[in-house]
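for the recovery benchmark. tokens below, seq after
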């Protein structure tokens, strides 16, 4: 066998995040000769864990939705998961979330903070419950994508067929709730601070049905023992067991679509029958050469490429990692291992909207003092996602100590501007220290004096590591035209590109996105390739 034959594959998958891993594992399971290429040394993308000083931290996702369990079962993956309970808190009031059972507690929490808005809160809760019931229907059965429908007649007759009419009804209702959540809430709530407390930890423009369904989704979170990265590790092992080839630490620089050849940064060529792109979509459209493809394909490709250029990435995330000389029990007394916490009932108001936009728009006229003043208020009134891996798995921190991951949404553009101005590291440190100060004054009084080490990932860190434009973690922004199919009813088509034998999967192929979308699109692309090539 010559070298060219060795580098010829039934399918090549570019991008070793959860979507790429999913496509690779199901294609290799189907007997396809596949190659999975990843630009980093490690696989997993935003579903990854790392160890430092005896602490295990999660680099991306803090937990995983239960939809993953269907895939684990289908692949016979041996991963132990535990329930990942979520808490929600504002100031000194914290509740645990147990699906529908916690709605009344949430209502009481909001009433205690906003006693003049009781009627508005009750109207909001009524809508929230309706949406949760619709989401319960949508996730009401095991995903048929991971079922052998031809053989499992009992599942088809007893579960799938009775569920389908309910699913169609739920989707029609949800379609009416696609307006941005903050805009929708203005129709039923007068107090802007209350609207902020409900919605400010979601991406700007998040659809109402997605934002207000989260009590249902929170209740289905699971956590892999050993960290979220164990899922990626298990998938890599399974791909290798199915004789799939993996190639880490390799950057793809060119795709010659007419010749069905891919070229890496070292000018190695790899030939494919089908290609699955599981990386940044803007990068894909910039490196593809169409050559002698049909005019119809070329026209559609150029039209789509123009749409991609206009698309905006969603907000990114700033994550602070803390090694703390306090036992896990200190935190466990107050909240669960996954907490959404807002230090002040005031809310962000225009701080993260008009003020930020104005500051970025006149950056050359904005001095450092003004930026830091804005930052202080931004961090004081924001909502934080706080994860404690060792509260789900006690082996993930040294005895008597705790590792905390504190995250919040931030715009990559701000970090670009600061880096251009030459004080990126000082800005990063300022954010770290302010977050510690805010949480010490509100949530954990002993925190400030017990931090042994601290470090952080900024939106630029995410962009450099994962490769997503702007460090986006769920793909496209809701505040600009989304250049991909993003409606749930059409998710099957979201994996298609203008080039018939190239597919797109993952967070950039769909919005809103997350681990379920990565898995579903990855599986859909694998199924299409397997079916079409039978």
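predicted aa per position
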């Amino acid at each position: 066998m010559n070298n060219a034959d060795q580098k010829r594959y039934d399918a090549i998958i570019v991008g070793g995040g959860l979507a790429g891993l999913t496509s690779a594992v199901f294609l290799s399971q189907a007997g396809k000769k596949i190659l999975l290429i990843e630009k980093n040394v490690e696989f997993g993308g935003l579903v990854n864990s790392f160890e430092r000083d005896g602490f295990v931290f999660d680099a991306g996702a803090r937990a995983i939705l239960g939809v993953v369990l269907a895939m684990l079962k289908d692949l016979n993956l041996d991963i132990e998961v535990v329930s990942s309970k979520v808490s929600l808190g504002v100031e000194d009031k914290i509740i645990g979330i147990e699906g529908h059972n916690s709605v009344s507690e949430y209502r009481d929490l909001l009433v205690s903070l906003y006693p003049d808005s009781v009627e508005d809160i009750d109207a909001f809760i009524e809508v929230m419950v309706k949406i949760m019931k619709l989401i319960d229907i949508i996730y009401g059965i095991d995903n048929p994508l991971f079922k052998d429908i031809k053989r499992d007649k009992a599942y088809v007759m007893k579960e799938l067929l009775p569920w389908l009419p309910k699913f169609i009804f739920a989707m029609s209702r949800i379609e009416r709730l696609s307006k941005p959540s903050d805009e929708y809430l203005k129709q039923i709530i007068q107090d802007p601070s209350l609207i902020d407390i409900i919605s400010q930890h979601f991406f700007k423009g998040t659809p109402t049905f997605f934002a207000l369904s989260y009590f249902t989704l929170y209740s289905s979170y699971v956590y892999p023992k050993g960290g979220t990265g164990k899922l990626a590790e298990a998938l890599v092992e399974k791909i290798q067991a199915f004789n799939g080839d993996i190639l880490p630490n390799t950057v793809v620089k060119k795709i010659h679509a007419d010749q069905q050849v891919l070229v890496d940064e070292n000018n190695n060529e790899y030939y494919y029958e089908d290609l699955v792109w599981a990386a940044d979509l803007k990068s894909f459209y910039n490196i593809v050469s169409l050559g002698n493809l049909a005019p119809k394909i070329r026209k559609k490709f150029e039209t789509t490429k123009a749409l991609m250029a206009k698309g905006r990435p969603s907000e990114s995330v700033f994550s602070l990692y803390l090694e703390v000389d306090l036992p896990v029990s200190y935190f466990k007394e107050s909240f669960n291992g996954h907490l959404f916490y807002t230090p002040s009932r005031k809310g962000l108001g225009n701080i993260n909207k008009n003020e930020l936009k104005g500051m970025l728009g006149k950056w050359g006229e904005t001095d450092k003092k003004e930026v830091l003043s804005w930052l202080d208020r931004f961090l004081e009134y924001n909502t934080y996602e706080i994860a404690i891996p060792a509260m789900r798995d006690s082996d993930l921190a040294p005895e008597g100590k705790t590792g905390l991951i504190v995250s919040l949404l931030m715009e990559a553009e701000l970090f670009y501007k600061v880096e251009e101005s030459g004080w990126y590291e000082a800005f990063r440190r300022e954010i770290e220290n302010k977050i510690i100060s805010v949480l010490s004054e509100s949530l954990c009084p002993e925190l400030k004096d017990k931090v042994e080490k601290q470090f952080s990932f900024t939106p630029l860190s995410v962009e450099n590591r994962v490769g997503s434009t702007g460090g986006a973690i769920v793909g496209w922004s809701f505040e600009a035209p989304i250049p991909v199919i993003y409606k749930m009813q059409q998710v099957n088509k979201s994996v298609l590109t203008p080039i018939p034998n190239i597919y797109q999967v993952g967070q950039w192929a769909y919005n809103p996105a997350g681990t379920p979308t990565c898995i579903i699109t990855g599986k859909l692309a694998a199924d299409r390739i397997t079916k079409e090539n039978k």
